[in-house]
Amino acid sequence: MAHGQSAPKIARIAALAGGVGAAKFLRGLALCVGQQRLDVVVNTADDEEFYGLRVCPDLDTVIYTLGAVANPRTGWGIARDTFATLGALARFYGRPWFALGDRDFATHLFRTSRLREGAALSEVTAEIASKFAVRARVMPMSDEPVRTFITVRGSAPMPFQEYLVRSRARGRVERIEFHGLKRARALPAAVAALKNAAAVIIAPSNPLVSVAPMLEFGAIKAALRSACERAAAISPIVAGRPVKGPLDRMMRGLGHEVSVLGVARLYRKLVSVFVIDHADRRYAQAIAELGFKPVVTDTIMRTPLRAARLAETVLRALNFGG
Ligand code: FO1
Question: Three-state DSSP class for 216?
């Protein structure tokens, strides 16, 4: 390249991601455009501390999936992991309710010790991602802790993992709160990635507990708003039911319609393209009336190839030339 000329800028794609659904989609997206083009901003509001260790389920799910080591059965944790440490810990702590595998423990030990040394979560996340040979840039939404609390009828607010895993998402959800927002700041690199991306995609994640914490940051919401014309969201609801998890109960409990339309309403003015499954094609007109360009396609990602096809369709709808 001639002196003084700068290298041509490669268009990047930014995604907002929760856990398993997002990770599957990102794997497909990476098959289309390559991991090195991806900036992934991940929810950390369902992080939890177990045995004194910082566990970041969504960050780890994205990293393990892109690193091709995720447990294919659950979508979270590491494939063929063993649970000897958890079994030994039961002697001291009683019966466990959160399944941390031996290999997974290594990640949490490393992260916790680096955080204790004073490293930022974003720094440690980049280190972990590189050790799993992940080439996408995976970032937490913030370096500061934010925690989701769920209130179900008749109970005190409980931390997210306690609601989801320990009490198996039982009960009528009355309230979702995010604690720590006042002391937290959106990760500047995440905001910059959203602003500079040629395409922005909200992955098929739970809008109320995976995406909402990220949108609570004014800087992230503003960046998404200004990227609206080149942004898309994929519905995590198909045929009136969530692809995974208790999103239907959460939406119903909080007075949202449990349908693709209910999800679309949450993303008004943030994305211009809204992607729904063939099973929901009857909503396409109503989605267009909300101001979105509706895209009807196969959103069930049974295989990486199907996830790649979905990603390709989303990019085409955004006129992403690459
Ligand atoms: N989900 C469960 O339903 N049960 C578990 O025991 C469990 C353990 C676990 C360990 C590490 C990890 O990264 C994720 C884990 N998850 C488990 C998934 C996690 O609770 C959810 O996928 C996310 O928090 C939702 O986004």
Answer: coil
Measure Cα distances from 284 to 159, 233, 317 in Å: 36, 14, 14
Neighbours of 196 (CB within 10 A): 15
Mean pLDDT of 201-213: 97
The arrangement of strands across the sheet holding 273-277 comes to 137-140, 38-42, 13-17, 199-202, 231-234, 273-277, 293-297
pTM of the model: 0.96
Q: What local confidence, expressed as pLDDT, does residue 103 receive?
A: 98
Q: Could you give the percent of the chain with pLDDT greater than 70? A: 98
Tell me the torsion sign for CA atoms 240, 246, 249, 254.
negative
Mutate to test the pocket of ligand 1, among 112, 164, 167, 247 (most ligand atoms within 8 A of CB): 164
Per residue in 156-167, pLDDT tens?
999 999 999 999
Q: Determine the Cα–Cα distance for residues 279 and 112; give it in Å rounded to an integer.
A: 44
Residue 2 has pLDDT above 70, yes or no: no
Number of the ligand 1 atom closest to the C-alpha atom of 104: 11
In this model, does residue 57 exceed pLDDT 90?
yes
- Judge whether residue 8 has pLDDT over 80: no
Cα torsion 149, 150, 156, 159: sign: negative
Order of strands across the sheet with 158-159?
Answer: 158-159, 147-152, 173-179
DSSP string, 60-95: HHHHHHHTT-B-TTTSSSBTT---HHHHHHHHHH-S
Give CA separation, 265 vs 131, 207, 249, 287, in Å.
39, 11, 17, 9
Query: Within 6 Å (CB) of ligand 1, which residues are found?
Result: 18-20, 46, 57-58, 60-61, 76-77, 98-100, 104, 161, 164-165, 210
Phi, psi of 167 (to 5 degrees): -105, 15
Residue listed under structure tokens 């679309």: 264
Q: Which two tokens stand for residue 167?
A: 């009490």
